[in-house]
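U., I forgot to send this yesterday:
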Amino acid sequence: MFVKKSRKFQIILLLLMTLIACGDNAKETAKVKPPTAAPEKTAPAAVVAQPEQNPVPQKTRDVYQWYCTQCHGLKGKGDGINAKHLTVPPRDHTKGEYLETRTDKQLFDAIKLGGLAVGRAPCMPSWGNTLKDETIHSLVRYIRELCECEAL
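Result:
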């Protein structure tokens, strides 16, 4: 009997803590939505576009600010607010020494599939279910802009 009451108490306490932790600002949270990059017009399959020549749209910069800056920092230097809590420091996107040794496909895969899937840091999440491929391609161009470097 005591075990059942104790279990009910634990469940109620857990629910109460969850409600307190989440706060009651649901109205404010509902107003804030992550930016989405506008769908870029793609060329027909027979024509291969040169993405490096296209300027990075502001929407892509907004997506980077929304999803990437927590770890990679506002300027891409790997000094985001979460960086100090990670066992592996986030990549500094302003340093071309490493990024120049990676192809755009490798960067794309790291963003889409996550670090662990490409043999890199497991704390880099997979964004493939959150961001469209066009947005990820645009993020790769933005990272190239930050490091002022070319692909391998």
